[in-house]
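Subject: Predicted fold for Site-specific integrase, 287 residues

User T.R. writes:
Posting the sequence so we have a shared reference for the thread.
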Amino acid sequence: MRTSVRGMRVAGTASKHRFKATLRRALNVAISRPDLPITTNPAAHLALPSSRRPRPMVWTAERVKQWRRTGEVPSAVMVWTPEQTRTFLDRAKRDRLYALFHLIAFKGPRRGEAVGLPWSNTRLDEHAVDIRTQIVQLGWGTVTTTPKSDAGERTITLDAETVRVLREWRRCQKRERLAAGPHWQESGLVFTHPDGSALHPAQVTLLFQQLAQEAQLPPVRLHDLRHGAASMSLAAGVDIKVVSAELGHATTGFTQDTYQSVFPQVARQAAEATANLISGKTSADHG
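User M.O. replies:
I've generated the structure tokens; pasting them so everyone works from the same file.
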């Protein structure tokens, strides 16, 4: 998706294919009804460009150098290294919505899931949040709905640092509630404006882009923080079944195909381990 006027998003090829599939199914249902004057399905003849899911690529030092020289972005899906992610979070700490970006960077919920997360589904004592709702953007308007699949309704386990960050944010929000007084809007959401009202997803994206630019980082989309969270979990050795479940994917195959960006240092370690196995060397031989 690309952002255009007032943050409204222009549908990419993959989204257009999903729209076509939905429209085609709806028209097939209409054709089967004798009370509707529809006998053919025009969506069946709609031609769209082929859709190929872009593979994530990591912003290596060489790619960053090339981007700074030419402005070239190697892939539609780019992922920051762990060091670059830390640089972004260091900048985001000076913004009141740091906890929101921290949660996405560490645990990978979708933008709408994070924006639509209510405190009632947040169990900090148990180090968990339950993803049951999301706020999605329709044009410039928004609607609160459930995740798009059964797998999307899930529980995400939080690390101790993320729990600490969310506790601090809750104390901050309570202070904002007292300051707002009768003007406070009780949305029940974790992440809100200072008056308690819901955040607009597009405004969160624009803030993310601003913070990334101020941190002088190569460009990624807000959604790519999700890619990065998954990639770093897999690189850290977390079982792919766990990563897939927490991302809300129905299959581990989709997770691996889409989100497993191998960071250069991990790839080099794997290459050395393979070479050592073949040559009969052990880690002690290199000591």
